[in-house]
Amino acid sequence: MHFLPILRPGPGVRVLETERALSESMLWELNERFFQSKGPQAWKRVPDYITTSQWNARVQADLVFGYLQDLAAAGCTEPVTVIEMAAGTGRLGVRLNGFLRRRLADSHLAELDVRIVLTDLVDANLQRARDEPGVQCVAWDVADPAPPVPLDGPVVVVANYCFDGVANDAYVVHEQELHALHAGLCTADDVDVHDPELVSAVGLFWEPTAPEPSPYEPLLDLYRREVSGTFTLPVSALAVLERVRDWSDRFLVIVADKGVHRLQDVARQDVPRIARHGSVSMPVNLHALCWWHEHSGGVALSAWHHSPGLSTVALCNEDRPLALTRAYRRWEDLDAGTFNTVRRMVRPPTTLREALSWLRLSGHEHEALAHSLLTHALDSGDIDADEVADILIRVGTVSRLEHDSEAVSRLRALRSAVDGDDS
Q1: Crossing angle of helices 91-105/54-73, nearest 10°?
Q2: pTM
């Protein structure tokens, strides 16, 4: 198949595994090995700012609150369980919990029974989040068919940077002919194959072959007719969606990942892309999730535009989720990916007022404090004691799961000095 650039292992390369369906590759097992061996230290190398940011927590809490409003409008009074899959250290889940509890307290849903459950494959990752009020932590694998806790009502599933590191399949379409794209695994001869970080040192080589029968034939047939090039199929994510459907007849699934959600962006003119950052990840075909969910009779919400860095989709099975839809459209042009792009564009504040405005806009983000207030407020010596106290209260809710930054430490020292002067 000359239209597809295929690289073969050469001299000095050890083949770890010959070509097979990508979803069956040992790549995913090696990825899991990395996270199990590193525990919370994995996030010193694996990027997670954009998904765990205050901005993303605020967006997703708004989506969950909208869905809860829809449930109430439909007469549902059952307890609701919110499950975050692959929560890592729990930073996003803790922040989402804070935003959601405040939204509920200020609404007619203040008495609604909502349980927040954070899950991760590695139990040690959740250790610090266990101290958070209103949050339950459970060691659980996304491949487990049973829910992490007993369910007796609607369920909300939140998955951020979850499906980019678990099993996908790969295909290629050329002149409306569909081929499976099998992958082999290789590494350099001198690499220790027992190293827990082996996954970051492996390469893939590819072989187009006849596709096997798939439960997703209608979706594959759509791609055969409408796209040209290679694409991935998020089989693990699709399996999770089917399992959630079995868990409850009322559900919402929020997925935020690096990937594509529009048909015109599904295919690429090269082999599937792999990102390496200690672990490995692949862009997620969110379009496949949305299309399959709608094909199964559900409602899928996705942005009209390409989202830089992070795409968020919402999948539910309510007939007319009006409040959820309003919440999604409210943030559609201001999603976490867009905010992250703007964050990189913004010049450093030059006045205290600018610094405080940026801090409030970010949701009192720990990083915004470090980059803005530390340089432009603390060094000026011109900061109101009441403002310091307010910032500490708000940033404290954000930074409980994080090591104190220099900015937080200096703010606390300044506040202590002010308290001393008042005594």
Answers
A1: 50
A2: 0.88
